[in-house]
Design a protein that fits this description.
The structure is a homodimer of 506-residue chains.
Chain A (H helix, E strand, L loop, with lengths): L2 H43 L4 E2 L7 H7 L1 H8 L5 H7 L6 H4 L2 H5 L18 H7 L25 H9 L1 H4 L33 H9 L9 H10 L6 E3 L8 E3 L8 H10 L5 E2 L6 E2 L6 H5 L3 H4 L4 H5 L2 E4 L2 E4 L14 H4 L4 H38 L4 H22 L4 H4 L1 H28 L14 H7 L4 H29 L5 E2 L2
Antiparallel strand pairs in A: 1-8, 2-3, 4-5, 6-7
Helix pairs in contact in A: 2-3, 17-18, 17-20, 18-20
Chain lengths: 506, 506
């Protein structure tokens, strides 16, 4: 190539680029104009229509000012995604996995454990579950008022009215007529500024004990912390305030399975005594935030809302989609904002992680069932408290680690390496305990395998642990047809009279 | 804002963009010119200087034509990265982790197992290791010729000369004077086209058995498959060709730990019989490719070379860095090409994954040590073959899964979820086996814990399993000072005479 032809080629290239640039600049002008017009439109649309009082619990009232957020929130009533994937809107986990019945023998979860539905159903489902029993009067159990803490924006209103410790004192039934609006706007938003806000004291108190000031966190952190008000591990502290079951997060030593286990061991806390093994058990609640914090998404600064409530655009307005849901039902707006892979590939990646974790989680369940029945056998053959002490601690620790992994739901995706690690430690402990049980049983002249119980179905498993399901179901039905309608009627009357009604501005 | 001022602002914006564009276009012209000139320079530089014969084993000969690739290949002699991180260029894994000695009792690895150094040391280190013993004559053991397969570009030359099965027949010592050039150019490149090529038959044969044609894979796949010639799980098949120890990859059922275990079980293959437990053991070699294939990097199409041999630019030329090494020593050219995070963050992410895996891998090692000594105790107390059958299978399977995870080196980063899964299954099996051992020992009137051996150091562990290290070391020293120099001398003479010498073109 000569120097001459090289330079004329370059001139041609320059002219081509110049003309292309002129076109691009013109289009940029049009774009800028369109953006400015859309901003004006947005400003016009977002004029508040209703006065929203402090502690306004009714999502419909907030919805008058924020119709898009409100309408999308109503999307949490939608259960078609689950139905499509699982054939049933309300998955009965005890049917799916009857081992759970044995693991929770002696505890409410053995009676009924369904996969949670959307926020819209929070109050309905806490009425429906057999775990809350069938209280006939305000002072009857089995559940304390503290159970209501995460169910409704009526809770900040009641805590303000009664005081926090008083809220935690008394029964679930007592609050029946008060807690009626399902999880919604006032749980996470300030009524004046619409800023995200922490309304539940347990999270604030946990931060204080960790010497962190929750008021100083970033907006991005708040997009996870409002979720962490409820999607966490917690217990009811009966020692803090006399008569109260004080909602407390066991985070003082850290978020890990080991750190929380140590916390509970140190205060000798147990949720219940297992009816077969007599082990002092811990029930992991749903350490979703804790486990998410150990995963790569949290490490990269991705918040809960980024995936579960991604931004959405309608009529020129960008807003947060308040249909909290599995990102797998909304891949284009969640995963694909960052990950440039096909939806099918991303879905397969998630399921692969989950499957690899579930394989060993299921194995650990089987080992725990065995440990419980072997421990029962040892008791039956005359084992002493001294014989059983280490064994029961082993069962407690192994099942805690299983439950930490299992109850944190999304964690086998959020943090598969950590969850795999925890399950491994659970398996080691479960089996170490079973070695001790084998030696003890041999000492008690039973040197053979204890048969695995026939727990092929939920019904068989519930019969095996001695539950009278017909009675429990009948009581619940009566509760739902007599007590709950009465609660709703009282709530309606109350909401008519108190001063939190909507007040249209114009 | 009035319509008038809005439109004049837009005009101003357009002019600003126009001027900026003029500047950018001018700079683009300069850039184009620079690229064209550099291409010319590259064409001038890349004129071959030497004729490279087929099966040319000497990296220095290839290096005359490809000085940049060759110089970077010499970088594999560098061990400063390790020294910096670990305080020693040659990490003695048995010192670091004396449990390994017990796990490999009765097998060569119990004598000596050092972390591999770079390709540059391949031949030196196979001479040095105690595993290859101290053969005095060409027909003495302990190792077969097959051991040399992955050590040198002399191997394709010898396989061409002798035939593949003949290469796999005979001793390691026999090939001593023939295998002298360390892993290099001719192992992966075609001498005519410089294309990547598969030189080792085991990979081609494994693909054939999987009904895949290795000639049809993409260049990107080749950037991993040339590595997979050696960085894989393999065994020596003694049944295929009479007298030969035929190098074979056990991939017929798949790459997973379970699939390869099933393969070995079906052919009743074992690498050795454990000297304590008498279990028929499998030694996982280094299933690096298999485990990498289950991880996210492989799933996203990232090849081995992308991270371990990233592109590099020098004097206007882009070339592949042939210093195969840990990407952690080269984060800016490997990880950061895709991951836009600080090097320190990426490093922490890698170490975190590894630590979470290593915790349970180490635990599994301890459980395996216990299983071996408990099995020995059972034999000592008079256990029968029938008593021990399932127990020995359990030990075999559990240790195979541990070794699959451990020997695949990078796998706790390449595929931490899969490796965590495999380790969990190993723990379950190890402990299930120990439960059986506890029952058997109780039957043999020993219903208590078998003491954990004192294996605090490599020396103590080697004494525990009965190795005479002084003798082994003395023999090796003699071998290194008498036999190896003789091999080198013979090789030098041979290389002087055969027709593969460099022939400068001009």
């Amino acid at each position: 190539m000569t120097t001459h032809s090289k330079s004329s080629k370059r001139t041609l290239l320059n002219w081509g680029l110049f003309i292309a640039t002129v076109v691009v600049v013109f289009l940029l002008g049009l774009l800028a104009s369109s953006i400015i017009e859309r901003r004006a439109e947005a400003a016009y649309v977002n004029v508040p229509k209703a006065e929203i009082g402090q502690f306004e619990p009714r999502n419909e009232v907030w919805g008058q000012n924020y119709p898009r957020e409100f309408q999308s929130y109503y999307g949490t009533a939608d259960t078609t995604f689950r139905s499509k994937h699982n054939g049933n809107a309300t998955i009965d986990m005890l049917e799916v996995d009857p081992r759970l019945v044995v693991l929770w023998a002696g505890y409410g979860f053995a009676k009924d454990y369904k996969q949670g539905r959307g926020h819209y159903y929070a109050v309905t489902d806490i009425h429906n579950t057999l775990r809350t029993g069938a209280p006939k009067t305000p002072d009857s159990g089995p559940m304390p008022s503290t159970c209501m803490t995460c169910k409704s924006p009526d809770v900040p209103r009641l805590m303000n009215q009664k005081g926090v410790a008083a809220f935690y004192t008394g029964t679930f039934a007592e609050l029946g007529p008060e807690v009626v609006n399902p999880i919604g706007c006032a749980d996470c938003h300030d009524n004046e500024t619409m800023n995200l806000t922490i309304t539940r004291p347990a999270l604030v108190e946990a931060f204080e004990r960790m010497e962190r000031d929750i008021k100083k966190v970033s907006h991005q952190e708040m997009r996870s912390l409002v979720c962490a008000q409820c999607h966490v591990e917690y217990y009811f502290d009966k020692k803090k305030v006399d008569g109260a079951q004080y909602l407390t997060f066991p985070w003082d030593n850290g978020f890990s399975a080991e750190a929380m286990e140590e916390y509970y061991d140190n205060i000798e806390f147990s949720d219940w005594t297992h009816s077969l093994s007599k082990a002092p058990m811990l029930k992991a609640q749903h350490p979703g935030y804790e486990t998410y914090m150990t995963g790569i998404h949290a490490q990269r600064g991705v918040s809960c809302a980024d995936c579960h409530m991604p931004y959405k655009s309608e009529g020129g307005q960008k807003f947060t989609d308040h249909k909290m849901q599995s990102p797998l039902n909304n891949i284009s707006n969640s995963c694909q904002v960052c990950h440039r892979e096909e939806a099918g590939t991303l879905l397969a990646n998630v399921y692969e992680r989950q499957d690899k974790i579930l394989e060993n989680r299921d194995k650990l369940e089987e080992l725990l069932v065995r440990a419980h029945v072997e421990a029962k056998k040892a008791w039956d053959l005359g084992a002493t408290e001294t014989n059983m002490k280490d064994i029961l601690t082993g069962i407690r620790h192994a099942q805690w680690r299983w439950d930490y992994a299992a109850a944190s739901h999304g964690a086998s995706f959020h943090s598969p390496v950590e969850i795999g690690r925890v399950i491994s430690t659970g398996i080691t402990i479960a089996q170490e305990t079973r070695i001790k049980l084998a030696r003890l049983l041999a000492d008690l002249d039973f040197n053979q395998e204890v048969p695995y119980p026939d727990i092929a179905t939920k019904a068989k498993a519930q019969e095996f642990i001695g539950l009278d399901m017909a009675k429990l179901n009948a009581e619940k039905q009566e509760f739902l047809t007599t007590v709950v309608p009465e609660w709703k009627k009282q709530a309606e009357e109350r909401e008519k009279t108190y001063d939190l009604k909507p007040e249209p501005k114009n």
